[in-house]
Every structure is written in structure tokens, then in C-alpha cells.
Write a structure and sequence with these properties.
Layout: H1 5-15, E1 21-24, H2 29-38, H3 45-56, E2 65-70, H4 72-75, H5 85-91, E3 97-99, E4 104-106, E5 114-116, H6 122-132, E6 136-143, H7 152-172, E7 175-182, H8 190-210, E8 219-220, H9 237-251, E9 258-261, H10 268-282, E10 290-292, H11 296-306, H12 313-330, H13 337-343
Parallel strand pairs: 1-2, 2-3, 3-6, 6-7, 7-8, 8-9, 9-10
Antiparallel strand pairs: 4-5
Helix pairs in contact: 6-7, 7-8, 8-9, 9-10, 10-11, 10-12, 11-12
Bound molecules: 1,3-dihydroxyacetonephosphate.
Amino acid sequence: MATYTQELRATAKSMVQSGKGILAMDESNGTCNKRFDALGIPTTEAARQSYRELILTTPGLSDYISGPILYDETIRQTTRDGVPFLKVITDAGMIPGIKVDTGAKNLAGHPGEKVTEGLDGLRDRIAEYYRMGARFAKWRAVITIGDGIPSRACIEANAHGLARYAALCQAGGLVPIVEPEVLIDGSHSLEHCYQVTDETLHAVFAQLYTQGVAYDQMILKPSMVIPGKGSSQQASVEAVAEATVLCLLKNVPATVAGIAFLSGGQTKEQSSAHLNAMNQRFSDRCPWPVTFSYARAIQQPALEHWSGDESRVAEAQQYLLQRAKFNSLASKGEYSSELEKRLALA
Ligand code: 13P
């Protein structure tokens, strides 16, 4: 296990280097097809390849993105000219990452709750991805807030899975992104989200400790502490930033290499504003870099503009680059809603 220590530390550090974040583009075929379907884009491997090529060949992407997270189909694909995506990524100075969980499935005996699967065979898959050139991985666990849930069973099962995954990654040379997502769906309050996120992070770090995971060789990808989408009491940007930072300070060891948030269905503007407020107001209190690992909040405007039309690739790339840049600024506390109003393309 010790053989990878220095490399894992260095990789984790560069994933969250100043002004950069991680681009999640690891949608499973099912999720990607759902997003394509909504825009009338064919749900074919060829269309997914074109879209991922659009993203990865965006000029200047590496100014703001340390590395993309890929899906198994994508890591094996090439550009239409035959250049492996992995080469495109490393030639641009980015680090390739890979989603290794096999999805959130119904948790037996607990209606409405999920447990993430994928531990079987994981050691071998990690070895294959490392040989291919991947240097970090992602596993997403899902916690749903609802009537009487999450249960202790759901939180414990998911925390255990995340910790087993993280330990296997570190043994195989991949920096684990540990992603416990408390869903934004529902009508819960900010306080309720805080309580569930607090309990979840506490359980996750207890399991990471038990499994011997090295905190300085992992990235935490949490959700923000935010009222449910259906809540009648939405919170201010400042309130979300403060509740989120307090919850992290309470639960996340100072040696964790970095925090990289998911966007979770927040609007693109909210995702940038919340990250910005955390860095603007609390950077002196946070012992870790606080950045982004967004999918929808970076990709959606580009995906909508492209909509499968190859004549719009260059413009769509500008939409993508702009969200990457705004979130890069937010990771330094230098984003503002004025900037958004003045410069936003979409
Ligand atoms: P969103 O930013 O769209 O929530 O996606 C992040 C992610 O990687 C979910 O696993």
C-alpha cells in the first residue's frame, strides 16, 4: 500500500490546486441518454462520443479544470480522428479520473432509500484503470431526506461502501473522491439538511477511519447544506455558505486534501454564488482547498446549445469554458453576480 503514498498525495494536491476544480462528465449511459432525450439528441454511442469530444477538446479547459471524471465507455473512446480521449486529457495537462461505482440501487428492507453498489471485482477494475492512465476515481452514495428517512441503515451501509472503495483505490494508486450526496429533492428545511449532512459526514469519516483510509490522499465531494427544492423557505447565499462550512468544519479532518462540491441540481448561478461565498467569507477558517466538481452546473448550457448540432460545437465550447471560468473564480472568492450579469453567455 505504501508504494503509492507520494504519488497519491501529489495527485490529490493537484486535483484541488488553486483556481481549479474537477469536471464531472461521468454520467452513466442511462443518465446521459436521459439528458440527451430531453433535448431530442439521439441516445447513441456516436452521439455520446461527439458530446464528450466537444467537452474534452474545449480550448483552454485546463486553465480551470484539473481533471475530468470519465465513465467506463468514455475512457475507452477516441476523438473522431482517432486520438484516445486519455491522450487528449493528459496532453492538455489534466488528470484523468474514472467513476467506479455501478450505481445506487434500492436498499433492501428500506423503501425509498438507495445503497451504492460496485465493490465486487473493484480491485481488478482499479488495476485496469490505473494501467490505462487514470489517477483518481469517484464513488457516489445517495442519501434521501423524506418522511422518516434517511434511516441509520442507509447511512451506515453507504458510509461502509464509500470507505471500502476508498481503501481499495488507495491500495491501487487512485485518489478516491468520496461522494456522499444528500439529495436536494424534497421540501425539507436548511436545518434538516444540516442535521442529515452532519450525521452522514460523521458516519462516513468514522468508516474511513476504521478502514484505514489516508485523509491526505483523498478528496471529499459533499453536497451543500441547502433547503430542499420544494421548500417554501429558501435560504440566502450567505446562510447556505455558512451552514455548509460549519458542517464541514465539524466533521472533516483538517488533513483531508480537498473539498470539491457537487452541484446537485442547483442552478448554475447558485452553484457559483454558494462556492464563492464560502471562499470569500470563510477561507481563513477552512484548512482545506474548497472547490467544485460539478457536472450539470458546468455542462448544461453547453449541452443545450449544442443539442446534437455539429455546427454549434465551437460556441457550445465557449459556454462550457465560461461556466468553468466562473467556478474557478468562485473557488478563489472572485466571482460576483455582477460579473455573471455582465458576461454570461447563457
Ligand atoms: P452534479 O454537479 O450535476 O450534481 O453532478 C456531480 C456529480 O458528479 C454527481 O455524482
